[in-house]
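A common beginner's mistake is to predict each chain separately and then try to dock the pieces by hand. The better habit, illustrated here, is to supply every component at once so that their relative placement is modeled jointly.
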Amino acid sequence: MQTSNDVVIETRNLTKVYRDFWGRVKVRALKALDFEVKKGEIFGLLGPNGSGKTTTIKLLLGLLFPTSGQSLVFGRDATDVAKNERLGYLPEESYLYRFLNAEETLDFYGRLFDMPRAVRRQRTFELIEMVGLDWARRRQLKEYSKGMVRRIGLAQALINDPELILLDEPTTGLDPIGTREMKDLILKLRDEGKTVLMCSHLLADVQDVCDRIAILYQGELKELGRVEDLLKMRDLTEIRASGLNEQARQEITEVIERHQGKLNSMGHPTTTLEELFLKIIRESETHPGRRVRGTKES
Amino acid sequence: MIREIETLSFFEWLPDGLVGWLFILLCVLIVGVVIGWLVAALRHGPITALRMVGRTLWTGVIDLAGTSPRRVLALSWLAVKESIRRRVLVAFGVFILILLFAGWFLDPASAHPGRLYLNFVLTATSYLVLLLALFLSAMSLPADFKNKTLHTVVTKPVRPGEIVLGRVFGFTAVGSVLLVVMGVVSYVFVIRGLSHTHQVSEADFEKGRTDRVQAHRHEISVDASGTARVEMAHGHWHDLTVEQSADKTVYRLGAPRGRPVARVPIYGTYLRFRDPQGKETEKGVNVGDEWMYRSFIRGGSLAAAVWTFEGITEENFPRDQFANGLPLEMTLEVFRTYKGKTDDPEQIPGVVGSLALGTTTDEIVRLEAEVKRVRRKRDRYGGTDPDKIKNLPEPDTLERARYQREVDRIRARLEELRAELPEPIDVKIFKAKDFATDVQYIPLQCDAKDGRKLDLFKDLAPNGRLEVWLRCLEPMQYYGVAQSDVYFRAKDASFAVNLAKGYVGIWLQMIVVIGIGVMFSTFLSGPIGILATVGAVIPKLFCPQLLAELATGQAVGGGPLESLYRLVTQENMVTELQPGLKTTVIEMLDDHVFVHGMRVAVAVLPEFGRFHFADYVAYGFDISGNLVLQCVLQTLAFMVPVFVAGYFFLKMREVAR
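With all components supplied together, the output reads:
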C-alpha cells in the first residue's frame, strides 16, 4: 500500500465496533473514518465525549485493532511496532509509573528506545529543564501535582525527539501559564518540522494552534479542513475601514474613494470555533448521519 | 530416602527429553495456530484468517529478531522497582518471624533433628518464595493494564516478547536475591539449632559415657593405645580433648561432627531378583502393599536381590581411607510373618540376612542398560501393574507387548551370559531392622570357595563393576528392597553446597511459577491468573501419578469421554459399559483421539515435583550435578513455550480495552 511521503497519518474507512463478551455490538465507536495528516502540520481532532477521538488515536497507536478499514502511520500499519521509533505519545492522563522519579522515568523510556546511556542522560537533562521540573527531578511522581505529571508526561513523549507527536488533551490539568507554554511548545514543534496530532475539548486551544481540524460526532467525521477556512463566514462580507461614516453597502468602494477614505480589508468575517462546533453538533443531532458542510480541504 | 524415579545419566536422558520436548512444542504450536485461525475465521472469513495467522507468525519471527537486551533490561529493572514498591521485602520479614517462632516447635531431641530443621527451613522458604512469585507475576501486568501505564510502554518500540521477558527476568532477580538471603539465614539457623556439646565428668568417663543433652548421650571408648574416642550417636560424634591439670582431668567435647551431611552415594545401576526357586525374575514378591516401590525377597530360600554397581575402583575408594572395607549403606524394609516379642520395639530382634559379591562382565552391563531402556519405554504403558495393564487402550496394549517381547529377548540373552559366571561369594552375615539405615563394610579381601584369597578390586571388580547379592536367611521373613535402598558411600560432599543446591531447586520452581504467572497475566485478570497458575502447578506437584494414569488411559473409569459419559449417566467407575455401538464409539474416540490430547496436555505441565530437592538435603544425600543440570535444562525448555505463548497472547490482545 503506497502513501505519499508527505502523508504521515492516513486512515482508510477506519471503523471500530466495541463488542461484549458474547460478540454482541456494544458501541460503534468509529464509522468509516477517512483522513490524512500531512508532514509538518498541527492536526486537531475535535468532538464531544464519546465521539471517537481517543479511539482514533488508540487505533493509530495500535492500542486497539480496527474492526475494518486501515490506519497507516508513516506508511506502516498501525500495529507495526517499528513505527513507534518515530512517534511520541502523551496520553490523556499521563499514565506513568508513580514510584519512579522524573529522572528515572525519562531514563526508563529512553532505554525503551534503545538509546545509549550518554544520550539518555543528555535528553533527560534537557527535557526536565524544558518542562520546568528541574527542582523536582528526584521526587517520586506520586508526589507530583497533576500539572507536574502532565509536564513529565510531555517530556517522556519527546524523549526520542519524535517526528510525529500524538497529544491526547494536552492542556488538561495545566494552569493558564502552563497551557500557554504547552501551546507555544506545540507551535515550536511544528516550526521544527514535526507533525502534531492532538485532540482536545478546549476549542480555544485548538483554534489557537491547529492548522487543520476534523470534527467527529458519534464516531462519524462531520467536518474536515483548514481552521481559517472552516471559520470563514461566506454569507457575510466584512469591511474594515477607518475614517468613514456609515454608508450603504452598495458601491462601498466608490463611496470610500469618493470620500477619500482608505479601505483596509474586505472579506468574509470568521466565527469562533466554539460557535462552529456547536452549530455542527446541533445540526448532526437534527439530521443524524449527514455531513454538515461540504467544505473541501485546502 | 525414597527415589521412585531413577535419575538417568545426562546423555541417556537428553535424547528422549529433547525429542519429547520438540514434539510437545510442535503440538502446542499446531494447536495454537488452529485455534487462532478458527477464532479469526469466525470474524473475518477463512482466507483472511489464514493471511492474518501467517502475518502474525511472521511478525513473531521479526519481533524475536528485533528483541533488544537494553529494553528487556529496562523492563526487568522496572519489575524490580515495582516489586520493591509492592513491599516484597515483607516476605523476608515473615520468614525471619517464622524462624524466630520455629524454636518453639522444632525439637532438637527428636530422632533426626537435622532432617527436621532442614525440612522446615526448606519448606518455609519454598512456600514463601513461591507464593511471592505467584502474586508478583500474576498481578503485575493486569495492574498495568488497569492503570493504563502499559499504554506509554507499548507505544514505544517495545515488542510484546520483551514485556514478557522483562517481567520474568525482573521477578526472577527479586526472588533470587531473597532466596540467597534466606538460604544464608537458613544455614545459620540449622547449624545453630543443631549445635550442642556434652559435659563429661570423671565419674562419667569412668562409666564410659557423656551426660545426656538433646535426648541422647554418647559412649566413650578407649582404644589399646589409651586414646579416648566419643562414639557416634544420633548421627554425629564429638571430638574429645583431655586436659590434665594438677588436681584433676578435664574432658572437653567439641561441636557435633558428621551432621548435617551430604553423602555421595554410588547407586546400583541395575537391580534384578531371583525367586525362591532361584529363577531370574524382574520383580520380587508383593507382600500386599499397594505401594509397589519395594519388592520383597523370601527368607530361607534361593530368593535374592542383586544389584550391579559401577565405579567400584581404587580411585573412588583409596585403600588407605577404606581399610575397614567399603561402606555399603542399606535401608531395608523388613516384613515379618511373625514378630516374637513386640511390646518393646527396641527388643524386636533384627532379621538375619547375608551379603555376597559376584563378578560381572562389560557385555552383561551393556545388556542390562539396554533392558532398562526398553523397560522404561514399556512402563509408559502400565508398568508392571496388572490392573493398569488391563485398562490400557488397545493400541497401547499392542505397543506394550512389543516392548515386553524385546525385554524378554534381552533377558534370555543375559541369563545365558550369567550362567557362565562363577557363583557369588558370601562376605557378610548381618541383622536388618526395619526403618534403620544399616552400614555394612565390604572387606577388601575375601576367601573364595576353593580357599583362594581374592582382592575386591583386582579379582571381583577388575572393571570397576561388581554385583552385590542380598539374601534373607530367616524362613518366613522377607526383605523389601528398591534400587536406591542399597548404595556404596564413597565420600561426603559439602553440606553448605548441598543446601545451596536445594535452594537451586526452589529457584527453579520459582522460575516456573513466574513464567506461568506472567504468561497467564497477559490475557487474564490478576485473581484468575493466580488461580490458573496454581491450577497448572498443583497437579504435577501433588498427584503426578494420577495425571500419568489419566494421560495413558490406565485410570479406572476409562478415558476422558468415557469418564464424562459415566458422570452424566451416573454409572459406576468399575463396571463395564454395556457393549454396543455407543460404547465402541466412546472407546474408539478415547483410545485414538482423546488419550493423545491428554498426553500432550499432561506433558505440557511442568515437572514441578522433580525440582523439589528438600528430601535430598534433609536425608543427607548429595544432589548430583547431573540432576541439577537436567532440572535447569527442563526449566529452560519449559520456559520457551511459556514465552512464546505469552508473546502471542499479548500480541493478539488489545492493550486499551
